[in-house]
């Protein structure tokens, strides 16, 4: 069954998890770029307040068609205990998500806050069928620890979609 992994990464942690997942379950990677091109300081000074407010960024790609996939995975870094503005925009940019199995993950330096819940609510609002969520620390993202939990969620979603 086809998997699409949509993610935003600024420091590489979320990208590492997405790439590890793709290496195990296959599928296509769609990296969402925030056109604001934040510096490391800008992520915290400008990006974090925007994340807390639930704002959406101008992104590339501007539209993400997932109609050809059975399972959609969305990954985000945590900024101010929230999903990034780029991921907020990416979820809004999804087309063909209705009725698709969805799994979410986040990477954070510490506490993920309500990040997973917010992404889950946004995807449910788009008509996705949420199958689970996993939070990774930056250390987990670098070491690969915990990836088996995410892989299991995706594989179970694929099996359910095949039935």
Note poorly predicted spans. none
Helix/strand structural class: alpha/beta
Question: How large is the count of helical segments?
Answer: 6
Q: Could you tell me the radius of gyration in angstroms?
A: 14 Å
Order of helices and strands: EHEEHEEEEHEEHEHH
CATH homology group: Flavodoxin domain
* Count of β-strands: 10
CATH topology: Rossmann fold
Q: Biggest β-sheet: count, sense, barrel? A: 6 strands, mixed
Strand content: 25-35%
Structural description of this entry:
The protein has 163 residues and is α/β, with parallel strands linked by helices. The protein has one domain (3-162): 3-Layer(aba) Sandwich (Rossmann fold). 42% of the residues lie in helices and 28% in strands. The chain contains six helices and ten strands; from the N terminus they run βαββαββββαββαβαα. The strands form three sheets. Strands 1, 2, 6, 7, 9 and 10 form a six-stranded mixed β-sheet that branches. A two-stranded antiparallel sheet has the order 3-4. Strands 5-8 form a two-stranded parallel sheet. β9, α4 (115-125) and β10 (129-137) form a beta-alpha-beta unit. The longest helix has 16 residues, at 147-162. The chain is globular. It starts with a strand and ends with a helix. The mean pLDDT is 92.
């Amino acid at each position: 069954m086809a998997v699409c992994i949509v993610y935003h990464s600024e420091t590489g942690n979320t990208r590492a998890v997405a790439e590890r997942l793709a290496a195990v379950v296959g599928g296509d990677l769609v990296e969402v770029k925030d056109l604001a091109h934040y510096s490391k300081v800008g992520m915290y000074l400008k990006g974090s307040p925007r994340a807390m407010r639930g704002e959406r960024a101008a992104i590339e790609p501007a539209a993400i068609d997932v109609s050809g996939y059975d399972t959609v995975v969305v990954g985000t870094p945590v900024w101010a205990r929230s999903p990034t503005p780029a991921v907020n925009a990416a979820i809004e940019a999804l087309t063909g998500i209705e009725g698709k199995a969805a799994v979410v993950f986040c990477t954070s330096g510490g506490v993920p806050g309500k990040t997973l819940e917010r992404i889950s609510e946004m995807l449910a609002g788009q008509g996705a069928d949420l199958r689970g969520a996993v939070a990774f620390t930056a250390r987990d993202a670098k070491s690969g620890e915990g990836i088996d939990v995410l892989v299991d969620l995706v594989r179970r979603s694929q099996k359910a979609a095949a039935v």
